[in-house]
Amino acid sequence: MDRFLFPRWVNRLVPLAGAGFVAFAIYGGVVFVFATAPETISIGHAPVQPVPFSHRIHAGQLKMDCRYCHNTVDKAAQAAVPPTATCGNCHSPAGGDGTTKYAAVLTNSPNLEPVHQSIASGESIDWQRVHDLPDFVYFDHSAHVTRGVSCVSCHGRIDTMDVVKQEKTLSMAFCLDCHRNPDSHIRPLDEVTNLAWEAPGSSDDQNAAALLGAEIRKANGINPSTNCSTCHR
């Protein structure tokens, strides 16, 4: 019986297979690094920002609506980083004659110098991202906000933070748990940006929020998908 021999052209596949294995290992390593980066899953991640913006003062004390700065959060997938012009509406710098174009709140504060420089130069402020999902994950803010899911569910009580930090894991398990059990995260649409809101009767009944959320979900036909293609497109 003749001994079987692979054709000579098979020899060319050996280095290709080796290169493919190396490429896959590198890809897997990159995915692992980004998927486990502090910006993705580390609770407590709080990068230093170029301007010490306090959400506790603006969203908490002054009761500013989240949508004033993050003006696309209920219209698009991205929440949008506010342009410096938005900051300038309240913190416009003084001109040469000492007057201001808009509101003059803390005009001479050294903390606002990057804002004033940005307004003068037209260059954006280099804000550091706090909540950052991997590139292979698709998340649509508007799909959640317009169905009654408040900022609190993913970001925590931002209105109590001087320095914004990541408070939730934002892992796949975290998202799936919410999609499988959404009722406690759904509230009336007019309370979505009221971060201090509590469901009526929640002080006496811990299930009050879930019961109200279930009613809203059924009334609006909200059925969160758990299909992989929802986030991995």
From TrEMBL:
Residues 52-94, 137-233 form the Cytochrome c7-like domain. The chain crosses the membrane at residues 12-35. Keywords: Membrane, Transmembrane, Transmembrane helix. Gene3D superfamilies: Cytochrome C3. It comes from the Bacteria. PANTHER family: CYTOCHROME C7-LIKE DOMAIN-CONTAINING PROTEIN (PTHR39425:SF1), LIPOPROTEIN CYTOCHROME C (PTHR39425). This is Class III cytochrome C family protein. It comes from Blastopirellula retiformator.
